[in-house]
Protein: 4-coumarate--CoA ligase
Amino acid sequence: MELLLPNSANSCPLTTLGFLERAASAYTDCPSIVYNNTRYTWSETHRRCLRLASSLSSVGIERGHVVSVVAPNVPPMYELQFGVPMSGAILNNINTRLDAHTLSVLLQHSESKLVFVDHLSSSLVLEALSLFPLDINTPQLVLIDDADDDAAASTAPTSPPTVDFIDTYEGFVEEGDPKFKWVRPKSEWDPMVLNYTSGTTSAPKGVVVSHRGIYMMTVNSLIDWAVPHQPVLLWTLPIFHANGWSYPWGMAAVGGTNICLRKFDASTIYNLIKKHGVSHMCGAPVVLNMISSSPNFEPVKNPVQIRTAGAPPPAPVLARTESLGFVVSHGYGLTETAGIVVSCAWKPEWNELPDSERARLKARQGVKTIGLTDVDVVDRETGESVKRDGLTQGEVVLRGATVMMGYFKDPEESSRCINGDEDGLFYTGDVGVVHPDGYLEIKDRSKDVIISGGENISSSEVESVLYSHPLVNEVAVVARPDQFWGETPCAFVSLKNEFTQKPTEEEIIEFCRARLPRYMAPRTVIFSEQLPKTSTGKVQKFLLRKIAKSMIS
Amino acid sequence: MELLLPNSANSCPLTTLGFLERAASAYTDCPSIVYNNTRYTWSETHRRCLRLASSLSSVGIERGHVVSVVAPNVPPMYELQFGVPMSGAILNNINTRLDAHTLSVLLQHSESKLVFVDHLSSSLVLEALSLFPLDINTPQLVLIDDADDDAAASTAPTSPPTVDFIDTYEGFVEEGDPKFKWVRPKSEWDPMVLNYTSGTTSAPKGVVVSHRGIYMMTVNSLIDWAVPHQPVLLWTLPIFHANGWSYPWGMAAVGGTNICLRKFDASTIYNLIKKHGVSHMCGAPVVLNMISSSPNFEPVKNPVQIRTAGAPPPAPVLARTESLGFVVSHGYGLTETAGIVVSCAWKPEWNELPDSERARLKARQGVKTIGLTDVDVVDRETGESVKRDGLTQGEVVLRGATVMMGYFKDPEESSRCINGDEDGLFYTGDVGVVHPDGYLEIKDRSKDVIISGGENISSSEVESVLYSHPLVNEVAVVARPDQFWGETPCAFVSLKNEFTQKPTEEEIIEFCRARLPRYMAPRTVIFSEQLPKTSTGKVQKFLLRKIAKSMIS
Structure:
């Protein structure tokens, strides 16, 4: 057959931004966002996001600029996932738990033109900007004042932002034009979001995902989780984690209600489930721990779907969570894949198995989702697929429409993990096996990464801080299993011999806390005369992990 | 931000064909197809489709060849939706209700290399091939013998296909290699399916849809209908109608069970729902009529989702269908958009309204689905959007990823409806209005089309047959409303004056039946001395439609 070329009617770029316009027609007066005493409808959210995009345009934001956000899951955070890219800008969500130094590095690296700052992060951001070199322009700031957060309002009254902030968020929204013509991408490959996965002491790794990538992740996330129309989603997953795995856009697609929250514990979760009839929530396994470790709660009335990723839920946590009326689904993805690309598709016959067996099966990451083209586990030396025996380890490699465009301003690192010349696959750095039934199981996330409470911690970043300590000779940081957090960083330290005064464990930890975001600092320090090494001088981290694991916590 | 280019890991072509491989892993031993005494699992369906593709390759089918299928919704029909494109070929499903002449025209126009023929259509296809000019090669034939269809087997015993058929379907599958490496598209814009929308007397219009278009329609159809995992779908929608709106691929994505059937009436439907726990079905409104007009049936135990398109379900049909436990959703699409692109998103508050009001709202086609970029109703003269008043009519125009690549071998007709130079939209030919709430309502499908029992009938095709009658002077064919079929063709005929012997209504109908597929022949013929015309001589079809409508049926 003669080839027909793409035409004007079918080659319009894929983008999730149009979902909002549709939601305003299809779910007009239905609730879009609920937060304390704040309630918006889809029609209102549509108008507010257009206003937001309009105001961004008014203050000089143009196609291709980067706009950053430092905020928890409050309503503005949701709106910004639409409003920023609707102005043509690239959205850069920043983890609120970073320290001023890291924040400064990322804001400089991203060349942010404007930052939306939650009021509780304002002093942090101002400090970060003070660390900018004199010859680099600092971004404009908009203050997210949270009038609806009673607790925060009383503890941290913010003075009018006359000096540092160009406007408050609400003022900014109000000044915008709800009839603004939002800026459509010229190509579906245009960048839409930028998400940093590291950046304290090592080179910042800014993952760039296109409109097409986000679109594909959004539809994939809806289908894979079988999300019905008008679900009620409790935002226990930080949106700054890979854009809440694309569910902000997914909720607009299905007209869901977003239950926003600033921070939470088990009783907040139970209360909100009860109050709003929550049907869905996502989160790191630490959220499951939270739910399942509270002895005081009765099972929820209607089943709540909970989707977790990052690390498999431990068997007792899984059993307890499910006994409380939650339906757990487990998946795997990276910031570099924009969300979950492999998930543990559940077979009905498995429901008949005993708890422990069900937990073992559910702990596996699973099979490719429909948005992924290929997933495989390959031998690092030969590049061949490993045996499907559940034993032979190899590196997890992927190919699919949601894979990032690359790391921002880092072609070298980009081509290190996406080797276009050879097999063209994305190398995740994670180690896994394939079971005889084709299900993938991760045995070791990327050697360098410790996952604590859903946050990825680069062990090399922690190590490089420790090396700056004057008494430290050699260090290795590994993950130590933790009942609650999943893992915490554990540092093995050998000291320089010439000094007689030895630092204490607490002193080392304090040293790190002063130089790293708090969650990245080691929780445990083990002094050792010498670190175990291979014949070629490489530290044998697997031995250290065994030691860390064996310690009574 | 610097632009990053698509890379080897994320620019792999979108295609639904990989869903099958995934289904074999994720839904291994779960049922894929059920038909009389036949049952397949997803693992078996995966292997059978690979074998099919392998055998096609063995008999010389290559990338870009067209392979046709003339079959009802039996298991091979399902398998062929994967097997044919997995061989690299373009899949051309042909309506089983066509006559030999039309079939011959389509097989020649499509340049089919091979045709899969259901045993009940074998004499028809052989007749069609006998109509080929001597200098045109006829395609190879594979016979779909249906050993599992008791009724058919007894009425139409087929002799071994030694002469005309190269193989039986089962033989063909068995000879194939289940380890065949299926042929992936080189580009997601490569053609995947070819579906004819007309072709008897007027030029064949062969709609070409790409792998990308089918992928987008498939995910769109799943999300818009909120299809859960492992639904049970009763195949009351012919797969040869725009590939069953892409649900063959959708069922593989969610691991559904496909309940196949050769033909059906209300009692078949009820029995299969009961027997297999059917949860989902699609069909033209005639299927709703069937369900709702049977007085003997009790409401179904569990709600059955039923999706309809083509024409809005009439209020009493809707009310009765819903009272029987069916949940009706209504959408709009064309073969040219590969399925439903606009649907009547239902608002919870509408559930409180009286039946008649709910029916009025549900009769509207609705809002764009998430797979569509734009839908609008524009004034044909000015190209401007019409007022959103529910009254001002205009032409429905669309833009979105599922729009066809064009009509096969007909660049003129393609560019007539997709005017890339001007606004770049696809012009549907359908006439609609937009209500103040943004919901679209079709007032008139393309002037030229009559929809009878879910089949599109081109009135100009019927007219041109009537014009070949020696006694006919002038004709106009319009739709006449029909309780059961929705519409039937009604011919207004003026006769030549010089003849005194007038034909009867029956003679005219017989004349058409001899020259057209049976369903296309007029059901009513009205003789008229002169047809009403405008001052410029155009037949005023709207007046004829009024007359047709007013006739007691």
Observations:
- The longest helix of chain A spans residues 42-58.
- The domain at 264-444 of chain A is CATH 3.40.50.12780 (Rossmann fold).
- Chain A has three domains: 40-209, 264-444, 450-550.
- Chain A touches chain B through 78 residues (CB under 8 Å).
